[in-house]
Every structure is written in C-alpha cells, then in structure tokens.
Amino acid sequence: MMMKAQLWLLHRGQRDLKILSWNVRGAVNKDGRRYARELISKHKPDCVILMETHCLFAAATIFWKSLGYVACEIVEARGHSGGL
User: Which top-level group of life is the source organism from (predicted)?
Assistant: First the structure.
C-alpha cells in the first residue's frame, strides 16, 4: 500500500506553522497507524488534516490523543458519501 502525505509550512511572524495533510483512503489499519506515527515523529506538525478515513472518528480518538492531537472539526461520512 502506497501512502503519501503533504506537509505545508506557513510563515507567520516569528513562528512557522506546520500543517500535515493526508488523504488516508481508509488506511486506519496497523500499517496506516505506523505510517502516521512516523510522519508525526519526523515532521512534528502543528495541525493534521485527515481526509477519506472511511471510519468513525470515535474509533480513532484514542490513537490521535496518544500522539498529542485533539479533534477540532469532524465531518462524519454516511456510507460512501458525505464527510470531507
């Protein structure tokens, strides 16, 4: 499974803001979580944007909290439609 994420660096005054954007495409399995840990460890983003997770966020809340992140905005999908 190929996984690819984008890292954006915004320059704002004296502090940079790192934003990690990842179209997960349902990769919430063991490999996807390992890749997420590697991305977080390597880039230390301030904000993580996940798209197409294909899971309910409640199922992944503990995992993301363990990495130091909390949900700010969640749009749950309904079946294969909706969400972001």
Answer: Eukaryota
